[in-house]
Backbone:
């Protein structure tokens, strides 16, 4: 059986003729979030039979949903080959006023991760496999359906869940095309952000495609010695090589390159590091997101003191570098940055 969510509209149009048949299928999948081919009433009986016999909407299923006190939800997905991965639904604004709702979905691109960041729980199990484009897309469909989000309501997508997105490059790009399709989910590329640990050649390749997506670099350290301890991949693509690739990345005139900086107590939270960060990003139209380390069992790292985080932020702001402190959501359900992992599915 083929996962129906793996197909772009153009691919389905090549299979089902005339092309309007594919548009009908896309409408049921991505506007009404329907999984049962039998329910697709305006699709011909012959086409429905082909769908039933050859295609599936059940390659991934929701195994568990946990709800945080802050309104965030963590979804545990079970795959047809017995693995699992997680995604997070974030409510960013006042959930009491419907007009002010801002949704962000944090997607996973792999089951596990091979980058091996020292501070990340996801890396503990290594890389199991890449997610297909359809498995990436289904996360959005399932979460939108579960939270009754209509097709016309804008949402933000961040590829900041499990895995290194650029390590699953082809499936990532295909998923972006499916997510962006105006006949489907219609999520503008400018609302999609890819977070990377810094695979310099893939950053260049992504830039050459000029998809219009946003890019965020997980930097976390400003010298190669420390960054290589935190992110072993830095030994292959050092800071200067990554910075060079970022300078060639196309950025919308109204947007900024984002730099994620995970602050760890007594590791990288001092003003000396802030000064070095300022020098490193000189010449960039940049935004720095400070993220407080999110603890988990048996980690050697500690969450930084808030006064040091604010001093770090204030230094950067005073010197003209846009800097925000990202609020960690879902801490009570282990849904914050660096806490996602493959779990055993209990059925």
Residues:
């Amino acid at each position: 059986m083929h996962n129906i969510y793996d197909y772009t509209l153009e691919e389905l149009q090549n299979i089902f003729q005339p092309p309007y048949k594919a548009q009908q299928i896309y409408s049921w999948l991505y506007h009404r979030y329907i999984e049962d081919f039998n329910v697709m009433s305006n699709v011909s009986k012959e086409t429905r039979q082909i769908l039933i016999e050859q295609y599936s909407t059940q390659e991934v299923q929701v195994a568990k949903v946990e709800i945080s006190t802050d309104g965030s939800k963590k979804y545990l997905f079970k795959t047809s080959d017995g693995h699992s991965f997680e995604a997070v639904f974030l409510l960013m604004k006042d959930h009491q006023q419907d007009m002010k709702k801002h949704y962000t979905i944090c997607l996973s691109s792999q089951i596990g991760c091979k980058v091996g960041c020292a501070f990340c729980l996801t890396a503990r199990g290594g890389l199991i496999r890449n997610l297909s484009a359809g498995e990436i897309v289904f996360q959005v469909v399932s979460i939108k359906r579960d939270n009754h989000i209509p097709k016309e309501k804008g949402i933000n997508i961040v590829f900041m869940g499990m895995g290194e997105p650029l390590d699953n490059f082809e499936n990532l790009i295909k998923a972006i095309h499916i997510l962006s399709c105006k006949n489907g989910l219609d999520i503008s590329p400018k609302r999609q952000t890819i977070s990377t640990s810094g695979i310099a050649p893939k950053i260049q390749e992504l830039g050459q495609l000029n998809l219009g997506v946003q890019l965020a670099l997980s930097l976390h350290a400003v010298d190669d010695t420390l960054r290589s301890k935190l992110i072993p991949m830095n030994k292959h693509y050092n800071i200067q090589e990554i910075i060079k690739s970022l300078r060639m990345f196309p950025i919308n005139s109204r947007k900024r390159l984002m730099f994620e900086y995970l602050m760890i107590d007594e590791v990288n939270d001092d003003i000396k590091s802030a000064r070095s960060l300022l020098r490193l990003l000189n010449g960039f139209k940049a935004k720095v997101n400070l993220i407080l380390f999110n603890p988990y069992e048996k980690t050697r790292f500690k969450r930084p003191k808030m006064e040091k985080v604010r001093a770090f932020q204030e230094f950067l702001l005073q010197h003209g570098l846009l800097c925000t402190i990202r609020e960690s959501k879902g801490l009570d359900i282990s849904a914050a940055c660096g806490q996602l992992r493959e779990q055993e599915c209990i059925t």
Remarks:
- The chain has a mean pLDDT of 92.
- The CA atoms of residues 160 and 195 lie 6 Å apart.
- The chain has ten helices and 14 strands.
